[in-house]
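seq:
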Amino acid sequence: MHRYTYPCPLRWADADAYGHVNNALFLRFMEEARTRMFQEVLPADEAGRRQHAFVVSRASVEYRAPLHYREDPVDVHVWVTQSRAVSFELAYQIRDADRLYAEGTTAIAAYNLDTGRPRRLSDSERSFLARYTES
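struct:
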């Protein structure tokens, strides 16, 4: 198993009056990493993306340390903890070499936006997830 790592840039507007990155933005960091991770497996055309979409059904974040605004990006590590026929779970760490800022999870369902219904994961999606699955 290997983890996908996204070097997530911080924006000056992410910081509050105390210079901390607002906690609500950690979900956005997780989304950015997940979106980039899945670019490889998503269809290139709009119709294919609608029929092979993913939706978040649950998200949680545990904050470990305050993240202060800085010029350097923070790393978001993503890996698969569970996979089923129509859904899977991802785990995240938001960190740098010295400190863990947050850990999170998301439950993701495979979804067809055209029918408005869950769908089964395809063979190529299952193979993709297996590369990042925790053993």
